[in-house]
Amino acid sequence: VLIGEDRPAARPTGFDTGCSAPAAPQVLRERGQREVFCGLTGIIWLHRKIQDAFFLVVGSRTCAHLLQSAAGVMIFAEPRFATAIIEERDLAGMADCQDELDRIARQLLDRRPDIRTLFLVGSCPSEVIKLDLGKAAQRLDAAFGGRTRVLNYSGSGIETTFTEGEDACLAALVPEMPAAPADAPPALLLVGALPDIVEDQFLRLFAELGVPIAGSLPARSVASLPPIGPNTRFLLAQPFLGETARALADRGVQRLDALFPFGAEGTTDWLRAAAEAFGIDPAHFDQVVAPGRERAKRAIAHRREQLAGKRISFLPDSQLEIPLARFLSNELDMIPVEVGTPYLHRDLTAREVALLPAGTRISEGQHLDRQLDRVRADRPDLTVCGLGLANPLEAEGLSTKWAIELVFSPIHGFEQAGDLADLFARPLRRRDLLKV
Ligand code: SF4
Q: How buried is residue 311: exposed, middle or buried, by Cβ count under 10 Å (0-12/13-18/19+)?
């Protein structure tokens, strides 16, 4: 399921200094073999978050195995994801895949009338045989009408990496969001799947601040997607939602530029962007935010001694790399050596990049062998990487952190800032214990 293939980069390999701002950082662009999960992985957290949706992957047994093993082999009586397996006769063109898909979807919806939204999720095999899931979704949506909405997006490893699956899913939901009336009062939309407990913490803070909330995307129920319009402002909770941000902008919704809510500083900046946009009195903002910010700072301080001065490299994986490197360098005094990311959303992360220490090597895309050579030459104290790379690097005496843990753990906001710092401290503690 870890994939490695040549995917064309937008521009050739080499250093790109950027074309607009003269102060743009140097970015090493790479293409070549990649080792990263595909976008199907997002189903693992999306199916828990969106409680009235069902994700039907149209794929192979490999896709089914990925979902089952990544989901910790969760066998429910009534799960909310499944794989419609494309068999050899489908691949050989001996069966009409559209008919087969209709049959399976009907079977599923007849048996599970509680499904309010069905996502047909594309995979490498469905893409290779050019199965038009957009057409299938339209046809099934027309057939099931008001009862079940049928949408589609791609989680294929050819088109998407890891967290891009969430981006594709949320972008597919944007056209379904109702239009807010033209005279609707301004309100804030939170964008990005967060654990419910973290989302609730943020909603409580916005309520205390007096920031009016339109809702969240994804909503816990697709049946109650919040209305949006030109008076809606949105804050991204995740840095990998480029397509979703574009789809919202097309609906006239304005993005509030902010750091991402990691650590005391990132969270404060994120909340402040909303407070300023909604004209909240700065003194009131400070009063509401100060207790959480102080708690976060204290929790982070417990890990500073262990992490300060330690060198860290990120291999491209979750697209969280840039804001996390900013958090680690600004609040824990770590030294980012190389920060690799599959895609650098320049517009969404410009402020994050500007806060990285001078000389940080930023790389976009992946050429696995070259990147591993650089890690071996740099010998950082900690390397954040995918599951498949961690063991070989550990065997070479390098401490590693699984990038996937950062996606599956609650790490946003004031209350999680200490845990976030601890996720990076733990492998170093383990290394020290093993040395003893
Ligand atoms: Fe593998 Fe592609 Fe299926 Fe992902 S979508 S599990 S990369 S075959």
A: middle
Q: Which residues are annotated as a binding site for [4Fe-4S] cluster?
A: 38, 63, 124
Report ipTM for this prediction.
0.99
Mutate to test the pocket of ligand 1, among 33, 66, 128, 161 (most ligand atoms within 8 A of CB): 66
For the chain, the domains span 39-160, 187-286, 300-435
pLDDT score of 92: 64
Homologous superfamily (CATH) for 39-160 = Nitrogenase molybdenum iron protein domain (3.40.50.1980)
Is the pLDDT score of 425 beyond 80? yes
Question: Which of 62, 127, 163 is the pocket-test mutation for ligand 1 (most atoms within 8 Å of CB)?
Answer: 62
Please state the atom number of ligand 1 nearest to the C-alpha of residue 67: 6
Under CATH, to which class is 300-435 assigned?
alpha beta
- Report the separation in Å between the CA atom of 287 and the middle of ligand 1, taken as the mean of its atom positions: 49
Residue 41 CA to ligand 1 centre (angstroms): 9
Q: In this predicted model, what pLDDT tens digit does every residue of 320-374 receive, in sequence order?
A: 999 999 999 999 999 999 999 999 999 999 999 999 999 999 999 999 999 999 9
Q: At what angle do helices 263-277 and 417-435 cross, to 10 degrees?
A: 170
The rounded Cα 282 to chain-centroid distance in angstroms is 31
Rounded to the nearest whole angstrom, what is the distance from the C-alpha of residue 217 to the centroid of ligand 1?
26
Give me the pLDDT at residue 89, please: 67
pLDDT at position 73 is 54
Mean pLDDT of 139-154: 91
* Six-digit token string for 4: 């490695």
Level-2 CATH architecture, domain 187-286: 3-Layer(aba) Sandwich (3.40)
Spatial contact of 192 and 238, defined as CB atoms under 8 Å apart: yes
Above 60 in pLDDT, residue 121? Answer: yes
| Residues 184-236: tens digit of each pLDDT | 999 999 999 999 999 999 999 999 999 999 999 999 998 889 999 999 999 99
Those residues whose C-beta lies under 8 Å from the C-beta of residue 376, and which sit 6 or more positions away, are 396, 398
Residues with CB under 6 A from ligand 1: 1, 3, 38, 40, 59-60, 62-63, 66, 123-124, 156-157
Residue type, 350: A
